[in-house]
Amino acid sequence: MDSQVLQEPGDRSHWCVVAYWEEKTRVGRLYSVQEPSLDIFYDLPQGNGFCLGQLNSDNKSQLVQKVRSKIGYGIQLTKEVDGVWVYNRSSYPIFIKSATLDNPDSRTLLVHKVFPGFSIKAFDYEKAYTLQRPNDHEFTQQPWTGFTVQISFVKGWGQCYTRQFISSCPCWLEVIFNNQ
């Protein structure tokens, strides 16, 4: 496995940690990532990475089960010189919210849809250092840092969707970048 359970909050050998959520419940532990790329998938017969299908989930919701089954090959997170890229290897869209994807003067952050087979620069370290905390209602409901990216599988959220908050999405990731 390319990722390891985060041993200590002060561990600086990683470039990010990943949390998997089903609606408002975190499933499994935080995973610390040291390798330059990480595959996050539901179930593969072969391969290295973060296998969501191996996590024990008590969620019996039909929607959660349906979305979990659609994650398939999932995503690949890759740390490049210019930032972190997310490649959608799934057969369904993913949705990403990142402070570094939007205009820094915007009052709210947009959720960006990434179609299967496409990638997006989801995080820019240089831009993140210059950002201030946005005045967004969602951020008063949930913790936020400029070094966090939220990724939902299959279902979107935000102003253009019936789900207003990512915690209403069936299956999603929180990626927290090391700011050192």
TrEMBL record:
MF annotations from Gene Ontology: I-SMAD binding; transcription regulator inhibitor activity
Gene Ontology CC: heteromeric SMAD protein complex
Transmembrane segments: none
Cited InterPro entries: Dwarfin (IPR013790), SMAD-like_dom_sf (IPR017855), SMAD_dom_Dwarfin-type (IPR001132), SMAD_FHA_dom_sf (IPR008984)
Biological process terms in GO annotation: anatomical structure morphogenesis; cell differentiation; regulation of transcription by RNA polymerase II; SMAD protein signal transduction
Entry keyword set: Transcription, Transcription regulation
Alphabetized SMART domains for the sequence: DWB
Keyword Isomerase annotated: no
Domain MH2: 15-180
One Pfam family from the record: MH2
Alphabetized PANTHER family for the sequence: MOTHERS AGAINST DECAPENTAPLEGIC HOMOLOG 7 (PTHR13703:SF44), SMAD (PTHR13703)
Protein name: MH2 domain-containing protein
Organism, as annotated: Lamprotornis superbus
